[in-house]
Amino acid sequence: MKVARWYNNRDIRIEDMPAPSPGPGEMRVKVTACGICGSDVVEWYRLPRAPLIPGHEIGGVVVETGEGVTRFRTGDRVFVAPKVPCLACDSCRNRHYPVCAGIKDRLPGGFAEYVLVPRALVDKGAYRLPASISDDQSTFIEPLACVVRAQALAGVVSGQRVLVIGCGMSGLLHVRLAKAGHCSVVAVDVNPFRLAAAARCGADRTLAAAAQMEEVTADTVFLCTSALSAVELAWKSVDKGGAVVFFAVPGPDKEVRIPINAFWTREIRILTSYYCGPPDIDTAMAHLASGSILVDDLITHRLPLAEIQKGFQLVMDADRSIKVIIRPHD
Fold it and tell me: How far apart are CA 133 and CA 316, in angstroms?
């Protein structure tokens, strides 16, 4: 089978490897679609594990099951989570699923024609797709679930003022989810193409210039870009009793200074949000299945596996792309 092996953002090679055969409790899934996540192009995050086959936003079809698999049959359309928590440790009992120490098995990279789903993911991380969620829409399940979790952690409720800084795909999902929850939303980006997308997603106001931020205050600020200038905007814009959520983070070589004295007297919360848990996946799938969160208009590119290098470049350039989907069998 064909796979895309990532060495760095400008060196992604289409290679051959044997198609996997499932053992007991496992299943082989034909990847029908896999989205390129913004984190896939963050080299400081990925390079320590290179070379690797990336891709964790997948939808597929079960083509073979191993002995003992009863939940799924050949032909089932599925979404498979990249990893699953144990659901039994203190972290899981406190709903901190992303930091579960019991996470061991992970989904092999989805930029491949097939993936072998390990037993733990078959048992607790695989979901049958309803007919109302298309193959392309299935690539939004994991990122939308991460957005669902971030807004829950921040305590976003109806009527709040939400500021989204960075209008890539995740930022736009934040806009849509906040609007679905009856919040007022201001979206900020330096890219006119993405600001126009934020307006289509329902943002009440879009801003490109930092100077205009003087008049914006928000109950919750979602940082969906790694730019240090965005962090400074967040500090200036969060209101008393509010929260700043780092959904994206600057590189480890960057220093973030927190105005802690000012925040102390104003009771500002600073949160980080990384990944999601099973309840968030359930909520994301319900949104997509019902159409309460629309995503088709966020798809700007669909490419075959052979053009994945072009796909990564589109995501890195970020000037004319939002959601780039790789379809390995096209």
Answer: 28
Question: In sequence order, what are the residues at sequence separation of 6 or more whose Cβ sits closer than 8 angstroms to the Cβ of residue 222?
Answer: 150, 151, 154, 162, 163, 164, 165, 171, 174, 245, 247
**Bridge partners for 28 per DSSP:** 64, 116
Q: Give the model confidence (pLDDT) of 137-191 as tens digits.
A: 999 999 999 999 999 999 999 999 999 999 999 999 999 999 999 999 999 999 9
- Rounded to whole angstroms, the Cα distance separating 202 from 224 reads 17
CATH label, 2-140+295-327, candidates 3.90.180.10, 3.40.47.10, 3.40.190.10, 3.30.479.20: 3.90.180.10
DSSP structure class, residue 308: H
| In contact, 135 and 232? CB cutoff 8 Å | no
Residue 73 has a CB neighbour count (10 Å cut-off) of 11
Does the model's pTM come out above 0.85? yes
What burial class does residue 9 get, using C-beta atoms within 10 Å of its C-beta: 0-12 exposed, 13-18 middle, 19+ buried?
A: middle
